[in-house]
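Write out this protein's structure.
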Amino acid sequence: MTETPPLTSRRAILRASALGIAGATAPAAASPTDAVDALVGLQVVKDRIALAAYRQTASGTRAILGEHLRRGVFTAKRRADYTAWLAADPHQAFCIISTVDPNVVWVRDFSGSASLDWSGAQGDGVTDDAPFINAMLQNPFVSCFRIEDGRKHLVSEPIKIRRAITLTGAGMQNSLLIAKAPIDVIEVALPSASENGLRLADFGITNLVKAEQLTAGSGISLNRTYLATVSNISITGGWDGLSAVASGLVNIDGLLVKGCRNAGLLFNGGHNFDLRVSRFTLSDCNYAIRLQDMCDELIFTDGVCSVSRCALYADATSNTVNGRPEFCRFSRVSFDSCDRGLDLANCADFVFDACFVSCRPNHGAELGIRGPVENIQFIATTFFFNGKSAAVVGPQAAETDFLACKFVSNGTTKPNAYDTLTFAAGCGTFSLSQNRFKPGWNVAGTPRYQVRIENGGAGNYSLIGNHFSQGGTGALLEERRGADRVLIGNIGI
């Protein structure tokens, strides 16, 4: 074949560098000029066929592969030393066997992360890239991968991650994985807790299947995932945004989820524990957050749950210790503009600290209506202009506390129809301390009572240091009989 002459001008070298060595490693150099000079004399070959047929096969010979999307520097090495590499690289991302000398293999020089482009993935939004990406991610000799800027990788099957790798992109809008089927776009299932350190960051996931056609499929599915990090990822469409089963010690940060038919965040039992979710936005889902079965010590901070049918839903098949959502904390989370706010059943030991609840046309919070709850605490939380009641503490709720919270009307369009805060007949022990109840903005926003304690049940209660405004009928209605109660220092009743 006719060979391209060696590069001799600095302009040619710079051009070859721009086209051919993204991610390559040049010998150590004192300056950028030295790094360019180190490539003087390297042959540029058009594609993998030309590289395989390149006649200079002496060990250590280097050449630049100029093939689109696969560009890089390759070095001739002894094939016998790369038998395992070749078996793990079916699409020639890293190794190309010489057709001149069967004992030689051309090996890609690179450091840091490996580009998915090298696998043969096109990133054009049309070609199915899943087989190429999956083959590359399974290569045991490489652990860091990147999705290039401007790529849209269409996948017809899940991207399967079975070991702790790093997969990063160039930003939520710039590096995309796109599905047109009801699948888990990224399916993580690690073999054991000892396989830890997974990192997913800086890319977007979009499922284009129409919502009414979806019955399954998460943007990211975590199964047996430990000591992992998921950060700066957007997920649009699909059944669930991010779902987790039997996973723990995972940090989820900077997550943006929109338009999921089921849940933006689904923690679906199997003993999820010690997960932290921060700086998140979940919108236009059936459930913004759904906690199902065993979820232990989950922490949510600095987030927004908005424009969903239900902001937070908790439930369990069995309301038993270690079988239900327990010891979860929400700090500085806004539950805003959802049809329903917090719907908690079969769970225990939840704390809402400095949160914001403003949901309509229904209640801001419903506790212990569908099933038992215990030890639910609201601290410095604002309930603002909710459609019916700010909160209803149901007959199966026990040990409920409101401390230093603010209640601003109940937002109903029908005056005197709902109470701002209702403690239903049969509910257990509760306390109200240092809360403020503000009047509605207009007649339509006037609650019937600010606090109503219904008759029935023997749950003791205390009201200490609260500030009440008048409702349409009154500030406080106590109907409960036979329970111990303490009323101290309240204003407005």
